[in-house]
């Protein structure tokens, strides 16, 4: 019986527990100076003065505003916010798709024979990847500040800001998704005379459609959230109305708008799940 118990204990014991413990300790040692540098002091939230301030702030959000004129304005600005996000993502797709095709190594014809891309296609691919880095490294808020001065206050600035930043994000992730899949069918199509678009449509796209769609819907959800921040600099939509309500200390209006954003994100989540089931 003792032998059986010893064997059972040995079977349950993790043979790599010492290494994992060492990695955890090293992670904490590296994390500690970062927490110090950011002045991360969560216990300050539990101080009586902090709790009192937070209680007053959160209490001002209830009950949500439900006036007829306000709800009509809320519906109008919600539609405008969805339109900003959708138009921005549509323009981002127009920018991201051709850049993705140029940046995806699996679609390179020159790499089929030697296994390495020719100098000119390689240089073009690196230039496209550099452009994607530039686009996504500029926050949409910065683009919005630029376009507000170019096209004026309103939704157009938000659409253009989302299009450029999200075009870089979509292009980068699309290329990584396509390159992480099985490229055997794509290479076979290219070797037999198919064009790059044909190889993409019949080789890479079918096996990655669900993941590409899911990420696109996720980015549309992010664009809806980004419209809040863009509205604070005059890019229109619910964000601009929320900025006005916060300046007027109308917490009930702010909470109603936040509930709408929760509903929009939940809708995007359900849409993503439905599209993945349809493409599975």
UniProtKB/TrEMBL annotation:
Record-annotated ABC transmembrane type-1 domain positions: 78-272
Keywords: Cell membrane, Membrane, Transmembrane, Transmembrane helix, Transport
Pfam family, one: BPD_transp_1
Compartments, record wording: Cell membrane
UniProt membrane topology term: Multi-pass membrane protein
Gene3D superfamilies assigned: MetI-like
Key word Flavoprotein present: no
TM spans (from-to): 53-75, 82-103, 141-164, 222-242, 248-268
PANTHER family: ABC TRANSPORT SYSTEM PERMEASE PROTEIN P69, PHOSPHONATES TRANSPORT SYSTEM PERMEASE PROTEIN
Family: Belongs to the binding-protein-dependent transport system permease family.
Protein's recorded name: ABC transporter permease subunit
Organism: Pelomonas caseinilytica
């Amino acid at each position: 019986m003792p032998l059986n118990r010893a064997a059972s204990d040995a079977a349950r014991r993790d043979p790599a527990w010492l290494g994992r413990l060492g990695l955890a300790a090293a992670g904490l040692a590296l994390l500690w100076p970062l927490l110090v540098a950011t002045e991360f002091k969560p216990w300050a939230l539990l101080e009586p003065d902090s709790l009192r301030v937070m209680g007053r702030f959160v209490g001002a959000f209830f009950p949500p505003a439900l006036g007829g004129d306000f709800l009509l304005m809320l519906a109008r600005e919600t539609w405008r916010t969805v339109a900003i996000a959708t138009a921005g993502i549509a323009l981002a797709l127009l920018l991201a798709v051709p850049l993705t095709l140029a940046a995806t190594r699996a679609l390179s014809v020159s790499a089929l024979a030697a296994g390495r891309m020719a100098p000119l296609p390689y240089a073009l691919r690196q230039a496209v990847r550099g452009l994607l880095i530039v686009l996504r490294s500029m926050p949409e808020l910065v683009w919005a500040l630029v376009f507000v001065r170019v096209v004026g206050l309103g939704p157009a600035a938000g659409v253009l800001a989302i299009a450029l930043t999200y075009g870089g994000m979509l292009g980068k992730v699309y290329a990584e998704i396509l390159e992480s899949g099985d490229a055997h069918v794509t290479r076979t199509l290219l070797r037999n005379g198919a064009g790059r678009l044909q190889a993409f449509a019949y080789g890479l796209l079918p096996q990655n459609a669900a993941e590409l769609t899911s990420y696109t819907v996720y980015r549309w959800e992010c664009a809806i959230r980004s419209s809040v921040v863009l509205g604070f600099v005059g890019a229109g939509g619910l964000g601009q109305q929320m900025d006005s309500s916060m300046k007027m200390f109308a917490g009930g209006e702010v909470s109603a708008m936040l509930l709408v954003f929760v509903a929009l994100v939940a809708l995007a989540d359900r849409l993503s799940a439905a599209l993945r089931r349809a493409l599975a």
